């Protein structure tokens, strides 16, 4: 059984990061990281992805644990499965003992996240994933480019903090008033890091009742 919390602690220490440093880099609360490491909570895949990014590693590298983890200052070739694949070894050398569920399931999940990030990496569209109360669960790379806000600054905050005060009532109605699964488009102003207000054409999709998503999706392009 792969112990995500214990492995997170191992990787963090390998990169010589304290809990406070990792929290500062990732924007995830120190207490949350500590509870993950202690096994008191089961982290979501996007939380682990955010922590991996803060440690300058990737989801595949994190989950493909080999006999040793090669971090900064370690000599020799990496012993993990990712390095083995780069060297031409067969994937069969990665055994299921390294995964909390069969490897193919974990790898499929990792692949989906990696492809999703790759598709959005150079997109000029803002994509936000919001929970029921409107807190930001995901802030796309396009959002960073368009608004100049760091992901770590936006995650967990209210989406209304980004919306022009005069637009907030209409925005809240558009966000919560749509039928489940329906998409509606409106124009709203979002705050750039400089304080400038930019107009976006926004499309809201309510997926709160979708058990695979349980969130609201906001797609926005400059108007």
TrEMBL record:
InterPro entries for this protein: Cro/C1-type_HTH (IPR001387), Lambda_DNA-bd_dom_sf (IPR010982), PAS (IPR000014), PAS-like_dom_sf (IPR035965), PAS_fold (IPR013767), TransReg_Diox_bact_type (IPR050807)
Highest taxon above the source species: Bacteria
Pfam families: HTH_3 (PF01381), PAS (PF00989)
Sequence ranges assigned to domain PAS in this UniProt record: 112-175
GO-annotated cellular components: cytosol
GO molecular function, one term: DNA-binding transcription factor activity
Keywords: DNA-binding
Domain HTH cro/C1-type: 8-62
NCBIfam families (UniProt xref): sensory_box
Protein name: PAS domain S-box-containing protein
């Amino acid at each position: 059984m792969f112990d995500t919390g214990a492995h997170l602690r191992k990787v963090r220490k390998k990169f010589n990061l304290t809990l406070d440093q990792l929290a500062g880099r990732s924007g995830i609360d120190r207490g949350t990281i500590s509870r993950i490491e202690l096994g008191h909570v089961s982290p979501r895949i996007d939380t682990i992805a955010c922590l991996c990014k803060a440690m300058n590693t990737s989801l595949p590298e994190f989950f493909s644990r080999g006999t040793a983890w090669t971090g900064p200052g370690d000599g020799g070739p990496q012993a993990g499965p990712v390095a083995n694949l780069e060297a031409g070894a067969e994937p069969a050398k990665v055994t299921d003992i390294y995964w909390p569920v069969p490897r193919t399931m974990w790898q499929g999940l990792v692949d989906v996240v990696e492809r999703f990030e790759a598709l959005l990496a150079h997109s000029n569209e803002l994509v936000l994933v919001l929970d029921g109360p409107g807190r930001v669960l995901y802030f796309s790379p396009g959002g960073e480019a368009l608004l100049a806000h760091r992901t770590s600054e936006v995650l967990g905050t209210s989406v209304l903090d980004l919306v022009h005060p005069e637009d907030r009532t209409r925005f809240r109605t558009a966000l919560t008033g749509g039928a489940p699964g329906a998409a509606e488009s409106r124009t709203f102003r979002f705050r750039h890091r400089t304080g400038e207000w930019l107009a976006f054409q926004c499309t809201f999709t309510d997926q709160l009742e979708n058990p695979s998503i349980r969130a609201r999706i906001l797609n926005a392009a400059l108007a």
